[in-house]
Every structure is written in structure tokens, then in C-alpha cells.
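Task 17 of the worksheet. Students: predict the tertiary structure of the chain below and write it out as C-alpha cells. Keep your answer in the requested format; marks are given for formatting as well as content.
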Amino acid sequence: MCLVTDRWPLSTVCDSVIILPMATIFPFTAIVGQERMKRALILNAIYPQIGGVLIRGERGTAKSTAARALAAILPEIEVIEGDPFSCDPNNPASFTEDLRARMAAGEQFKILRRKTAFVNLPVSATEDRVVGTLDIEKAIQKGERRFEPGVLAAANRGVLYVDEVNLLDDHVVDLLLDVAAMGVNVVEREGISFSHPARFVLIGSMNPEEGDLRPQLLDRFALCVDIQGIHDPRQRMQILERNLAFEADPVGFAKAWEPYEQALTQEIAEARERLPRVRHTQRDLETITNLVASLGVDGHRADIVILKAARAQAAFMGRESINDQDILLAAELALPHRLKRQPFQDTEQAMAALGEKLQQIEQRIAQGAQQDAQAQPGRADSSSAKKAIRG
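Model answer:
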């Protein structure tokens, strides 16, 4: 079963499609607190190639609410009528072989605009249900290559959400992370292969009390956010008031928050357009590698993820070059689940250690920027930012 937020022909993709009316989705901008989680989601929405985000937290901390709300604010996309893979009409290089053949034959495609799809993957999903299936019998007998699209086809250019990802089969999780990193789903059976684009915002959520992911899979998630319930009485009052207002009148509540939702949608769209122009310097790379190395993080995935997330952060801030603040904000999301923990050290202690280390580095960066400013009075302070989403 797939959960999709708009009306589009998915009969070839999902056996059962539930249409979720947009008025039933709690607005993203109305979520109280949890700024770090919201920032991680927005950065992945701007740059899906970051590699997804894992949200870990106790029950009732808006994990599922935020995932659904993100899809509702994403900009509309253009699709080709009747294409079950939602290929981008403006990027022929991403077309399936069928679309390429039709284009070569001179067919003029009808272009439609629709909302971004939100696909909810159940924990009982099998590999075939996720990647799709090839009809081997028809291929052998008639020489026809027939592919039955799976969940990844429905999720292309949309949001793929896996609740309780820690309960999903490890092999399926590994497969999802592979496809999310490559952006292409390749299915091979008996020497026959089929591929289609599969770029999506991958969101996984879990309650650590129900078991954790294996370290190998945990590292494959680009970003990770550990969230807790909000204890501040005033914020808890806000949560209560907004939930009561939403339950009493979902349509009216959504309408009241619509200007904020539209503004964020526009910012994400502009950031996506700006992202290819965002540049980094050799000094930025040195800052990232020194930071990761000083924390004793294994492998090099963290370095790459921090750079990608920093570029997305800079694009969201309206800049075409990254700065030290972007790197630090990215590190807050890319490093917590990759830190080596000491025996008997829990998540809060690990996060406190990371926060202390980042604060020390931030102070050194600020001191260096001040010295540079004194040496070059006309130079702007690269650690400042006109706006930032940080938890």
C-alpha cells in the first residue's frame, strides 16, 4: 500500500492508493520547536542527493507529522502525462528507454503540473514490492521486456517515508539507501535489466526504545536528528493550542498558515535553482576535513555529506558560496550518529561532546575571522548569516 498526496495515475505503481487530502496535513510551519529536524528536512528537500535523513525520537514528537508536512510544501513538479516514473520533462537524460524511443519517433508529450508525491513505505514491504518486477516469462517467450513499477517508481521526485525503519528488513533498508545515493533504480533478473530514475527525499523515523539500526546502515543515512519532547511550558501550550485549533477546523487552520507555507515553498524553489551555482574553496574543504578528523570519525562519508549539506544551507540562505557557519550547521546533522561513543555513553552525552567540540571550533573560526577583518578592513565576516535554521 502506498500513501500519495495528490490525484495522479498510479494504478500501475501501487495496488492500493490512498489519497490524502491536503487539508488533513498539519502545516510544516506550524510545528512548534524541533528546528534541527525541520532544517534537516528542508536541506534534503533542496538537495535530495545529500542522502536522506533519519529522525530518532520518542513517541509523539512530530516525526511523522513533519515528514508528511514537508511533501505538502514542496514546489509543484512537471511530469509527462501517463508516465508512471514521473520523469522530468526538462531533463531528457533521465528518461526511461520507452520515453526516449517515443521522443525519437517525434512524439509531442503532454506536460502536466502536480503536487509532490508522498509515499509511505510499510515495514512489511518486500524487495520486489520496492524495486518493481520484470516479467521473465514474457521476456523469454515473446522477447518483450515488461516491467511492473514498484514503490521507488512512485517516489521518484517525491518524498519516500519509512516509519519504524529499524523494523524494516536490513536488506531492504540497504537497497533504499543505495538507490537514494545513486538516483537510479536498476532491476536485473536472468540477464534482463531495466532502469528508471529514482531521486527522492528519503526520510526514516524510529523510536530507539524499539531497537536500533546496525551501525553499517546507520552510517548510510546522510543526516540524523535525535529529538525529544519539548519541556518548556510555553511551547507545550502552543502545541496544545495549535493541535486543538487544527482538529476543530483543519481547513481554516491550513488557510491561516497558508502564507507561511507558500513563503517557505518559494524559498525552497529558489534555493534549488541557486544550488548548482554554490561554490566552495580549498579552505572550506580543509575546515571540513580537520573537523571530521579531530572527532575521530571513520570513513569519508561524513566529509562528503557535510559539504553537500553546507551547499544546500548556503543556497537556502540566498548565497552562492559556503561559509564556516554553513559547515558547522551541516556538521550538527551529519556527525551525531557517526561519533564513536565511549562505553556507557548515551546519546545525550555524545551530543553534548559534539556540541562542545563545535563550540570550540566556532570560537576559533570567529577569532580567525576577526584577525582577518583587522588585517583586511574591507573584508566581510564570513561567519555571519542573514538567516539560519538551527536547533
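Marker's comment: Confidence is low (pLDDT under 50) at residues 1-21, 378-391. The chain has 14 helices and 13 strands.
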